[in-house]
Specification:
heterotrimer; A: 537 residues; Rossmann fold; six-stranded mixed beta sheet; 20 helices; 24 strands; 35% helix; 25% strand; C: 316 residues; globular
Chain lengths: 537, 368, 316
């Protein structure tokens, strides 16, 4: 009986009351989404809202604790990609699953090859692929190697893979993150084409323009919770933005107005090119700005818009293709990482376990990662272990770092929050003028977040310059004295946190709005300064 | 203060358990093989492996030290490289060119007087260092996998050593197809060990090996260079972030590792107990045994010292196996099995975690 | 003319085992598993095969005896390589360490068992395997070179080369195998059982290494002394020199074979003896060339991208 009523509504996929719990976090909390046949349903939410988890549940990579999945009205159990495929569900992963030195055709048929007398028979497959690419306007040379084609073309291969497998339900996981604007337009056209041919699409994104451009309906998630589903045609971008980020700022930290002093960090015309073959994308595009003593400048933006590359270029752990960096007026463009480390730069890295700590060293050794060679911590060629351990004991006391065996604790065995405290303690304590803090509270609990926020403000009030990169709007609002919004590698806006609404920031971050003055990087830095001053008035 | 500096108990406990696990399985496999070959003699044969080295009292103990000396040093070489994130499978080649350096100086540079042996040792170390430097440079500057280049260097070293010995009338003993005896002045001093262990071949080489162990321990755990080398080995991204020069460290690590293996070769040749460079196209086994020693000793200098002594002890016991018509290769089989299972460290760790978790759960259950 | 024929024949004796073993290593690495145990597997394969020849003596015709020995060597190699597969694939152990262990195990085991069975470690055998190929042997020049007094193993090597190339590039198995060595996550997403393919790759490497051990010992010796003279390692050099491609591997093994043949027999060749280059130079040369090749190819190596890294389904 139920089946009949469901088919009337013509839902091809229903995920009902899905709850997925990971240790310490509820990734999906009673989420229900329904995909109609022949529509594009956008799944909107900030980083960590639970979109990817939900799609992984649908693709069989995770099993939900609660909830039911129905495909074409029938309740199903999906145990893995093979099951999903058998149900006609395909997925374009954010990181493509392609074999680099295979041809397009080989990648498409892999796992579903046709053979004759034991030998591969590619002719039929080639014919089918050519037909499909004709029909859906996915032009591509089946004999090119993946490593020789652009990222946009690689994405078409992923789409063709789904079509070759006759998938009717297609999941696109943030498909535009790696594309240039032109490629994004092409992708939008392709998606519309697919719908015309009767496919149904789930489109994961946080870019409102794209939703407006192609989606029929939009389901919004926030912090694992289902907020609602709306018709895109009837809803403004502002409303969607509000649904995505919410109104409420939960955490507030007491903060005096900033009292900026002289310029500490100056970045001028910084450009980083992506190292992708046959595809030159400026992941950081002619970025210029200044950070002065006693202020927190926050780079706000959605993940993958060039923040990582920008900070890597400034700190020196990543490449930089043009532009200048100076600290305290000294040109640092071509200086070594160690020189920067010892001449005013501190850095709380984005990935604390990959860059920030040597997990197999104990806590004490990690507190002197950039200073072990200084006279304070060494005697000739030897380490001064006593000095290192007493320094570490001091940091443990000052920053309330909890660890099983004090300074001798292996950092690997410490909790994420305490690991982060070690880094914050180290970077704040060692001599510096500018602190780069990249997502300093990522993955931490509320208590640790509050603590780190207070420390950053203490730093500022102590006259340090701080460049903060954050993906969390709450954090941006809490800490920033000035907000620079980064989108597609460009600084698209400079905002005063006291005068701008969350919705507006959301619009800038999703590329729906931009300030013209900032976009013209050629005039920087004077142009930037002018805007900034204007903002302060 | 002193308490706090004690190393990480949890980690080394797991490591120790996985080493013991590997040793037990290795001995078990050895016993099973004896059992299959000759059930009647298997038990006394196996006991001989364990006790044989003590049959002749202090002389036997002296022999253990003597056998242990080169493999402690090659083990130290491999283990030190492991600590810095490199796999020095080139120890055999470094060992052979080290032998060559020591023998060449030991024969040709008579007249250096009382420091002759020391110069010969240093010559061996220098040759080993050069042989280690090549894969180091290739890795640092051309990103060549050090395992592959070290294997090539092993063969190049072996052929070059044989070529040099054979083509030199000064070095070559045509009658025996091996290198001549080194000058008496080039023999390592006995340092009183011959009195302590009468009748054994042990000499100051063992003391040198122990000193090397201590020096490497100091280098790794007490110096700035050691801090950098280990940081690169543990996490090269964090090392880069910290401003450490990774390329220089890779080369430095390989040079030191090469020098240690070269020293091992030199000590064997200068022991004055009848070791020569035999002109055969065979890779020196001391180098490969060093890999086993390093793995068993968890790459820690003191661990390597004990592991080297343990394998030497098995080898010494193995000689007496011939009394039971078993050949001594059973020891190599046991050592190979030990290496194989020491590669399962991850598995042992998981096993321990599982067991300890079960315990916790049962405890909790009990409390409830 | 006699000299050239001699050199060509000698080259074949050295090249063919290198070719077979390097192709074996290629299958393992193409599936993502580095197998540096080739030396040890060769020793095991040669040991059981030669032991069979030794025990059966002159009880059957040479060619039949050789064929059975080949089968025994192949099976031995596969069984022995299972240990490497288990450690590398199931236990996610360090593949270099596991390979090193097998390399140590094999000669010790071969000597130990030989001593138990017959008292001495050398295993003797009588070489009754040379044969003339009818009709073809009468072709001028080529006949004496390739078809007179030849070993069927030489032709077997060429057949393996052809089959390997076809399997790798023209079959479903080959496509899937290669995808596992390049990007196992892509293969996994396409519904391919990566573990199964890696087992297949490692077992093929074992089979070919076992065979290669026998093929190396039979024409070049009259007894087996638990040693294949570093050919397992040399085969890995051939594999790299040939950039993981069967036809290039064939070329590399010919080059290495020529060098070996010259170093073994140059004193009997007036032209080469006259050059006055010692045999050790020819012995060292292939290794030095491989090092140089490594320097120039490491930046743009054709090595399978995922080789040596244990595949973990969970890490996406």
């Amino acid at each position: 009986m139920e089946n009949i009523s469901e088919t009337k509504d013509n839902y091809v996929v229903e995920m009902l009351n899905i709850t997925k719990i990971f240790p310490g976090i509820i990734a999906n909390d009673d989420v229900t989404i329904r995909l109609r046949k022949g529509e594009i349903l956008a799944l909107l939410g900030e980083n960590g809202a639970g979109k990817s988890t939900l799609m992984s549940v649908l693709f069989g990579l995770y099993q939900p604790e609660k909830g039911v999945i129905k495909v074409r009205g029938k309740e199903v159990k999906i145990n893995g990609p093979l099951d999903a495929n058998a149900l006609g569900i395909g997925m374009v992963h954010q990181h493509f699953k392609l074999v680099e030195n295979f041809t397009v055709l080989q990648n498409i048929v892999l796992g579903l090859e046709t053979t004759k007398n034991g030998f591969l028979k590619m002719d039929d497959a080639r014919k089918k692929v050519l037909e499909l690419s004709e029909k859906y306007n996915l032009r591509i040379d089946p004999d090119s190697k993946i490593e020789d084609i652009t990222v946009g073309q690689q994405q078409r291969v992923e789409i063709l893979k789904m079509l070759y497998r006759d998938n009717e339900i297609m999941i696109f996981d943030e498909p535009t993150a790696v594309l240039t604007p032109q490629e994004i337009d092409e992708l939008m056209a392709i998606m519309k084409n697919l719908i015309k041919e009767g496919k149904s699409i789930l489109f994961i994104t946080h870019k409102l323009n794209e939703i407006k451009a192609v989606a029929d309906r939009c389901a919004v998630l926030r912090r694992g919770k289902y907020i609602g589903t709306i018709d895109v045609a009837d809803t403004s971008k502002e409303e969607m933005s509000e649904m995505m980020v919410g109104r409420k700022v939960e955490l507030t930290v007491e903060k005096k107005p900033a009292n900026p002093g002289k310029t500490i960090l100056e970045v001028e015309g910084l450009t980083v090119e992506a190292g992708l073959k046959g595809h030159k994308k400026h992941v950081v595009d002619n970025v210029s700005f200044k950070v002065r003593a006693g202020e927190i400048v926050c780079i706000a933006g959605i993940d993958g818009n060039g923040q990582t590359e920008l900070i890597s270029a400034i700190s020196g752990i990543g490449p930089m293709h043009s532009g200048h960096i100076s600290i305290n007026g000294e040109d640092m463009t071509h200086k070594s990482i160690r020189y920067k480390n010892t001449h005013g730069l501190s850095h709380i890295p984005e990935d604390r376990q990959k860059y920030g700590l040597v997990l197999d060293y104990d806590l004490a050794y990690n507190t002197v990662l950039q200073q072990y060679f200084e006279p304070q911590f060494s005697k000739g060629m030897f380490l001064n272990t006593d000095a290192i351990y007493s320094y570490s004991d001091e940091l443990i006391k000052n920053y309330d770092i909890r660890s099983g065996e004090g300074s001798a604790t292996l950092t690997r065995s410490m909790s994420g929050g305490n690991q982060q405290k070690v880094i914050v303690a180290r970077e704040n304590t060692r001599p510096h003028d500018i602190l780069l803090a990249v997502q300093p509270t990522r993955g931490l609990d509320v208590g640790a977040i509050e603590y780190i926020h207070k420390e950053l403000i203490k730093e500022r009030d102590g006259g340090k310059a701080i460049l903060l990169v954050s993906l969390e709007l709450d954090e941006v609002r809490n800490l920033a004295d000035r907000i620079l919004v980064i989108y597609e590698g460009k600084i698209v806006a400079e905002l005063d946190p006291d005068k701008v609404s969350n919705q507006d920031i959301g619009l800038y971050m999703s590329g729906s709005k931009h300030q013209d003055v900032i976009g013209e990087g050629e005039d920087a830095p004077s142009g930037v300064m002018a805007v900034k001053k204007g903002g302060e008035d | 203060m002193a308490e706090k500096k004690s190393a990480k108990p949890k980690k080394s406990k797991v490591g120790l358990l996985s080493s013991i696990f590997a040793v037990v399985i290795g001995l078990l496999v050895g016993f099973i093989i004896l059992l299959i070959c000759n059930p009647a003699q298997a038990v006394p044969g196996f006991l001989t492996i364990l006790t044989g080295s003590f049959t002749h009292g202090m002389r036997g103990v002296g022999q253990i030290f003597y056998y242990a000396t080169p493999i402690i040093l090659t083990g130290l070489s491999v283990g030190f490289a492991f600590k810095t994130g490199l796999f020095n499978i080139g120890a055999p080649g470094q060992f052979m060119v080290g032998s060559l350096g020591a023998v060449a100086i030991g024969i040709a540079c008579e007249g250096l007087g009382p420091v002759h042996w020391l110069i010969a040792l240093l010559g061996g170390m220098a040759m080993g260092a050069v042989w280690g430097a090549v894969p180091g440079i290739l890795k640092a500057h051309f990103n060549v996998n050090e395992v592959i280049s070290s294997i090539m260097m092993n063969y190049i070293g072996m052929y070059m050593t044989n070529w040099t010995v054979k083509s030199s009338t000064v070095l070559f003993n045509t009658l025996r197809n091996e290198s001549k005896n080194v000058a008496v002045t080039a023999n390592l001093p006995k340092a009183g060990l011959d009195v302590l262990f009468p009748g054994s071949s042990v000499n100051s080489g063992f003391i040198i090996a122990v000193v090397a162990v201590i020096l490497i321990w100091v280098l790794l755990y007490k110096t700035k260079l050691g801090y950098e080398l280990q940081a690169c080995g543990f996490n090269r991204f964090a090392s880069k972030y910290a401003g450490i020069n990774e390329k220089r460290n890779i080369m430095m690590a390989m040079v030191i590792a090469g020098a240690l293996s070269g020293l091992a070769g030199a000590i064997v040749m200068l022991a004055g107990s009848g070791s020569h460079i035999t002109v055969k196209d065979v890779i020196a086994s001391e180098g490969f045994t060093g890999i086993a020693v390093a793995l068993l000793g968890l790459s820690h200098p003191f661990g390597v010292l004990f592991a080297g002594m343990f394998i030497a002890y098995l080898t010494a016991g193995g000689f007496y196996l011939q009394l039971f018509q078993f050949s001594t290769e059973i020891i190599d089989i046991i050592v190979a099995v030990i290496i194989y299972f020491s590669a399962f460290a991850l598995f042992v760790k998981l096993l321990i975690d599982k067991l300890s978790k079960k315990k916790e759960i049962s405890k909790e259950g009990g409390e409830k | 003319m006699q000299v050239i024929i001699f050199i060509v024949q000698q080259t074949m004796y050295f090249s063919i085992p290198l070719l077979i073993v390097a192709l074996g290593a290629m299958f393992a690495e193409r599936s993502g598993i580095i197998n540096i145990a080739m030396e040890g597997i060769m020793i095991m394969g040669a040991f059981t095969g030669i032991l069979f020849l030794n025990l059966t003596g002159n009880s059957m015709s040479g060619q039949l005896q050789l064929i059975i020995a080949i089968i025994i060597s192949v099976v031995t190699g596969m069984v022995f390589s299972l240990f490497h597969a288990y450690a590398s694939i199931n236990m996610k152990a360090d593949q270099t360490i596991s390979g090193t262990a097998l390399n140590m195990f094999a000669p010790a085991f071969a000597i130990f068992v030989a001593r138990v069975i017959q008292g001495v470690q050398q295993v003797q055998f009588t070489n009754t395997f040379r044969t003339d190929v009818p009709v073809l042997k009468d072709i001028p020049v080529l006949g004496p070179m390739f078809f007179q007094g030849a070993y069927i193993t030489t032709y077997l090597g060429i057949i393996i080369l052809i089959v390997s190339t076809v399997v790798l590039y023209r079959t479903r198995f080959g496509l899937r195998l290669r995808s596992c060595g390049e990007n196992p996550h892509a293969a996994d997403a396409a519904g391919i059982n990566v573990y199964k393919m890696q087992y297949a790759g490692t077992l093929i490497s074992g089979a070919l290494a076992g065979l290669g051990g026998l093929v190396f010992v039979v024409p070049t010796s009259v007894n087996f002394n638990a040693d294949v003279a570093g050919y397992g390692f040399l085969a890995i050099a051939v594999l790299i020199f040939g950039q993981w491609h069967p036809i290039k591997i064939f070329g590399a093994s010919l080059f290495f074979g020529v060098m070996k043949a010259i170093s073994a027999s140059y004193s009997g060749i007036p032209f080469l003896a006259g050059l006055g280059i010692p045999s050790y130079f020819y012995k060292m040369f292939p290794y030095i060339v491989t090092l140089v090749v490594l320097i120039f190819t490491s930046k743009n190596s054709q090595a399978p991208k995922a080789e040596g890294k244990p595949f973990d389904k969970g890490q996406r």
